[in-house]
Amino acid sequence: MPLMTVTGSTLVITAASPAPATAPAAAPAARRRTAGRAPGPYRRLFALPGTRGFTAGNLIARLPMGMFGVSAVMMIAGQRGSYALAGAVTATGLAATAVVAPLTARLIDRHGQARIAVPATLIAVLGSLSLIVCVRTGAPAWTLFASYAVTATTPNIGGMSRARWTHLLRDSPAAHHTAMSFEQAADELCFMLGPVLAAFLCGVLFPEAGTLAGAALLLTGMLVFTSCRATQPPVTAIPRRGSPLRALGPLLPLFLVTGVVFGSMEVASIAYLDFQGLGAASGLVLALQAAGSCAAGLLYGTVRARSLKACVCALAVLMTLPWAAAATGSVPALACALVLAGMATAPTMVTAMSQVHARTPEGRINEGMTLAVTAIFAGIAVGSASAGSVVEGAGPVAAYAVPAAAALVALAVALTGRSIRRPSDHSRVVRTAAARDPQ
After folding, report:
1. Which residue stretches of the chain have pLDDT < 50?
2. What DSSP designation does 35 have?
3. Do 163 and 201 have their domain in common?
């Protein structure tokens, strides 16, 4: 069943000299040349009614996800003079998110996106505003921890957007693959631009500017997103049999180890550039990695989906490149290696997230997506701590061994896991919207 029908062609009218005698015979060829080309997969995707509206809100609300952590660190460190306190506060926020986010997602699945996401976002925004007030007024340190923990109610906007695509494209596996690729590219873009925007606002304006802007963008984007009611997945009335945690159990270790790759690579790159006296360029170099992943994600959406094992294999191979480049001492070589390594992450995440959709019990897709994201965040925390320890003990070059080793572990998990689904299985499950593992 096609997503849209291409109609019409472009009529080119020229008036000059009389038409030659061969014009009637040439007319069919001219019509073929001027006929409009079939639109690409992304153009067909956003031709669906309502998709542009909720995507606009999604992107606005998703951008602050890359802003809040950097903004909080710069604000707290700038006002209180302690990076240790700033790091502890943000770490507490991540821990609270790991507990609260799945509960929020479960409520969204049970009662609908608009009904839960808006009040949950308002609570998170109040937490951000409370953090600003406590920092500015010199309130006790525990108030900073409490305020930042409240922001854990922030809904998983990426998961809600993917749930909408899954609902709209449940009978079109190829289009669903394109949508998931777009969502992954959007993740990379927002986490690439978010920290840059936060650092600019906090540095150029005032320390609280990043948090204020992030809160405003989050609330505005969420209101736009939830106002698009036509594309919202209906609340299912069938019994919610099965647990997302149990269904995704075999996949969560893979997400955890992939998070270790992300977290350790970031810390290793920052440390390496700092040792080279190029600490100010770390944001640009990391942005190159995200740009490579974003480009690869968009390209991956135009081709046939590969198996998860193949994607993780490519990830394991390409993650060795930054380690080799760092050993040469060449920053340009490292930048190129990071771009290539980044190009392996988007296809891996797109394919893995598609399996999340296929495995999650019907009616609990937001909860399943949030569990996967929580596993990634936990891995990022482990990877950051591990790479930091290696930097202190063996130097920044050796720290690149951490993401390379984590990628090999991810490959081992993918190769030995009995539950890694074949693409054909995934397509069948998406078409039927059963979302249950047949194994």
Report:
1. 1-35, 238-239, 422-439
2. S
3. yes
How many domains is the chain built from? 2
| Residues 196 and 315 occupy one common structural domain | no
Gap between the Cα atoms of 284 and 282, Å rounded: 5
220 contacts: CB under 8 Å, gap ≥ 6: 60, 61
pTM of the model: 0.72
Residues 224 and 256 in one domain: no
Q: What is the 3-state secondary structure (H, E, C) of 132-171?
A: HHHHHHCCCHHHHHHHHHHHHHCCCHHHHHHHHHHHHCCC
Which tens digits make up the pLDDT trace of 110-162?
888 888 889 999 999 999 999 999 888 888 888 888 988 888 888 888 888 88
Element (H, E) at 221: helix 209-227
Q: Which amino acid is at 341?
A: A
Same domain, residue pair 78 and 214: yes
CB-CB contact of 387 with 402 (8 Å): yes
Summarised one tens digit per residue, pLDDT across range 70-90 is 788 778 877 777 767 777 787
Tell me the residue range of the domain where 139 lies: 49-178+192-235
Q: Which DSSP string corresponds to 222-236?
A: HHHHHH-GGGSPPPP
34 inside domain: no
Residues 344 and 405 in one domain: yes
**CATH number of the domain bearing residue 263:** 1.20.1250.20
What does the pLDDT read at residue 23?
A: 44
Identity of the amino acid at 326: A
Cα(296)–Cα(301) distance, integer angstroms: 9
Residue with tokens 């009529």: 11
Which value, in Å, is the radius of gyration of the alpha carbons in the chain?
24
Please check whether residue 19 lies inside any domain of the structure.
Answer: no
What's the token pair of residue 184?
Answer: 């992954």
**339 in the same domain as 261:** yes
205 plus 280 within the same structural domain: no
CA gap 293, 347 in Å, rounded = 8
Quick one: 394 exposed, middle or buried, by C-beta within 10 A (0-12, 13-18, 19+)?
exposed
